[in-house]
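Researcher: Following up on the earlier apo prediction. This time include the ligand. It's zinc ion, with the SMILES given after the sequence.
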Amino acid sequence: MTRLEGCEPLSPVIDTHAHLDDGRLRADLAGTLARARSAGVVQIIAIGTTAADSAEVVALARSNPGVFASVGIHPNEAVDATDGDWKAVAELAEGPSVVAIGETGLDRHWDRTPFDLQRIWFARHLDLAHRLGLPVVIHARDCLADLIDQLRDLGRPVLGVQHSFAGRWEEARALLDLGLHLSFAGMLTYTNRSLDPLRDVAARLPLDRILIETDSPYLSPHPFRGRPNEPARVTVTARRLAELRGIDPRQLAHATTENARQLFRLPDRPSL
Ligand SMILES: [Zn+2]
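Model: Understood. Below is the ligand-bound prediction.
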């Protein structure tokens, strides 16, 4: 069966953030991509988090039409990264299937990498992306204020996306003012009332700055929480977002797909 239960098809949608090289997705990659295609997903951006796995997502992008790669070292992985790793990432970044730099950013939740070191690695990614004219894929956990400060210090607009945005309106506004897009994941579908403010942000943002993603295998949307997420389920988040904004899901699908294609300069073809 290629149709995934609970994912009413919606097309065209792009999953702008999936960890396709994660073992949970990789175990049945052909099935994962087939189910995504059946759900209406036309393209996927596979995200690297270390030098080794950046090489893997580039290989996946080369061998799977409709899959593109983002290369970088996640803030929680930076503590183990070497200069050789950075050189490898910078070389990969020049490849034709690479459409972004990251996942990079700042994380105070896990605090695995000393925060000053996280800032240094984030700055390196921002600089590389800027030099190559590529968008940057940004992670932030429990430190949006620090992140906004570091971006403001650059003194220039930043091309890229704040992925899996989970902040407040003022933070969203600041990131938009810096030039970033905001991407929403399964959290929009969670039933916790504490996420109502996030839903308000998602409803109010300008439509031309919004992207959608799964962050699979993490952040499965309701009612699939606790199970590994996969790109097909980006349709669940897309439908919820359309509902929050009071627009037709197809309109939301087309708009977010157009936004992703512009930001990451994705070609219309190939698709999955
Ligand atoms: Zn991620």
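Model: The pocket of zinc ion is lined by residues 17, 19, 47, 103, 215 (CB under 6 Å).
Researcher: Noted. I'll compare it with the apo version next.
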